[in-house]
Amino acid sequence: MEASRSQNGHNPLQIAVVAALSLILLYGVFALYLAGQAVIAVIVLAITIGFAIIFGSNRFYAQRFIFPGIAAIILFIAFPVAYTVYIGFTNYSSFNLLTFERVTEVHLSKKVIDEESQRPFSLVQDGDSYQIFIKEGEGGYLSEPTDFAAPAKLSAAAVSEVPANPLKMGEVVKLRGGLAQVEVVLPDETALRNSGLRSFASVQQEYTQTEDGTLVSNLDGSTLTPDQSQGFYITETGEAVAPGWRVNIGLDNFRRIANSKGIRAPMVSIFVWTVVFATLSVGLTFAVGLALAMVLQWPHLRGKTAYRILLILPYAVPAFISILVFRGLFNQNFGEINMILEGLFGIRPNWFTDGGLARLMLVIVNTWLGYPYMMLLAMGFLQSVPADHHKAAALEGAPAWTVFRKITLPQIIPPFLPLLIASFAFNFNNIVLVLLLTRGLPDIPGTIIPAGETDILGSFTFRMAFMDSGQQFGLAGAITFLIFLVVAALAYANFVAMRRQASKRAAQ
Fold it and tell me: Is the pLDDT of residue 3 over 80?
């Protein structure tokens, strides 16, 4: 009876822990909502409700083992992918970061200073209050006292002498926040505001908003009209005025990619190079790793342990350190590689300025970084090949290459297949290597966006989003979505092709 009650009832400690964690998560939801992250707040709220239901009731005991993984996928994979895709359908950029309301506030907060009305000023302390002295001729105007605690409109009276012991500039700087809140009215009704660290002047609001949302200039009567299709205020001559706000623009980013030669041409070139780079990287690392693994499997080889340690070292060293070392080795002027080539052959290749050589350098470095992983896998897979098959082939007089092609390779390809596909997908987006080694350079001439001959699609998108002066997040999001579709299609096509090839070899 007690065991049944323990199994079907609710443990008070369990309920208390679940309730406490749920309250913490709910507080996080509230904080996210106050921070303006409503979408993330809704996702976390859904996860919180699921957590409370699944872990608060023994009825869903089996679901407890998969819930953390599902929650992590939703929060860290599904949401970022969906948000990136959504960004691709907007005009989000460094010029369109704000909301429409905030952009309107920015324009309405613009002030125009009348240069002819500017006058120097000084501050005079009067107990816990301060008086503003505005110089005019030999004398000037002295305002009534204020403590700068709140916005104020201060009347000023004419005085014939400059007050003694004005505050030093350092003390004035400390009070600049209060100075920005006050307005000094001279005897002739001229209103002056703080226009700098050393001056007061007549300051006028540049724009006034009408009922229909149009901004009218108080200087010349010109207008700024909000255009929700572009996310900018537009002048009477049709020019967009920054800053802008983020709006949905549908397929405009994708049309821009398709129709603009300055974007389309480098994208096609970069796409082709990305496929070639990923294919060469997978092929060379697989070939080198498998060849070294077969050498290490040779029974008559002495010192296998030492060779294994030396060959695995590139895998043990952090990749970014190896990349930076190679960047120094390939230095065109002082690198050891060019010194050796010049000494042996009298040549000094321009590794970083010649597009073809820069691409070759990327492949060489990536092969060095990737072969130890393939070698370790191959060493394990080769041991799974039955020795009897090799002995039978040797008795029949089959050459070594035939044994490898007909017996060894067909048996190690099936377990290698998913790892080769994963390696292809990784190298398709291997932006760390590109950014650290070449930074995508040399640039492709004639483009309107940052694009280099060694850029792959991932680094190309990264540079556009975070290294370009315009930071075109929307365009980068559209390209990222296309990359996602391309990588998925290529990975699936590779998987199908390699599986069919493996099946044919196994049948033979």
Answer: no
Non-local CB neighbours of 33 within 8 Å, separated by 6+ positions: 41
At the fourth CATH level, the homologous superfamily of domain 111-205 is D-maltodextrin-binding protein, MBP (2.40.430.10)
Phi, psi of 8 (to 5 degrees): -95, -20
Interatomic CA distance for residues 234 and 299, integer angstroms: 78
Per cent of the chain over pLDDT 90 is 45
Please tell me the number of Cα atoms within 13 Å of 232 on its side-chain side: 16
**What pLDDT digit, counting tens, does each position of 436-449 carry?**
999 999 988 877 77
Q: Please give the torsion angle defined by the CA atoms of residues 153, 154, 155 and 157, in that order, rounded to the nearest 10 degrees.
A: -160
Q: Are 483 and 460 in contact (CB under 8 A)?
A: no
As a CATH number, domain 2-87 is: 1.20.58.370
What local confidence, expressed as pLDDT, does residue 263 receive?
81
Fold exhibited by the domain 258-507: MetI-like fold (1.10.3720)
Q: Would you tell me how many other CB atoms lie within 10 Å of the CB of residue 2?
A: 7
CA 132, CA 154: separation in Å to the nearest integer? 9
The answer to whether residues 238 and 229 touch, using CB atoms and an 8 Å cutoff, is no
- Which sign, positive or negative, has the C-alpha torsion 292, 297, 299, 303? positive
Closest CA to 370 of 308, 288, 297, 492: 288
Domain ranges of the chain: 2-87, 111-205, 258-507
Mean pLDDT confidence for 161-183: 89
Handedness of CA 403, 408, 411, 414 (dihedral sign): negative
CA distances to 7, 296, 298, 368, 424 from 378, rounded to whole Å, are 49, 10, 13, 16, 17
The Cα 435–Cα 111 span in angstroms is: 43
Residue 257 vs residues 212, 480, 487: alpha-carbon distances, Å: 35, 12, 18
Q: Supply the pLDDT for residue 316.
A: 82
Q: Which of 104, 115, 108 is nearest to 218 (CA)?
A: 108
CA distance 352 to 500: 40
User: What crossing angle do the helices spanning 79-87 and 38-56 adopt, rounded to 10°?
Assistant: 160
Distance of alpha carbon 241 from its chain centroid, rounded? Answer: 27
Q: What is the C-alpha R_g of the chain?
A: 35
On whether the CB atoms of residues 228 and 245 are closer than 8 A, the answer is no
- What pLDDT was estimated at residue 508? 61
If you average pLDDT over residues 460-475, what whole number do you get? Answer: 80
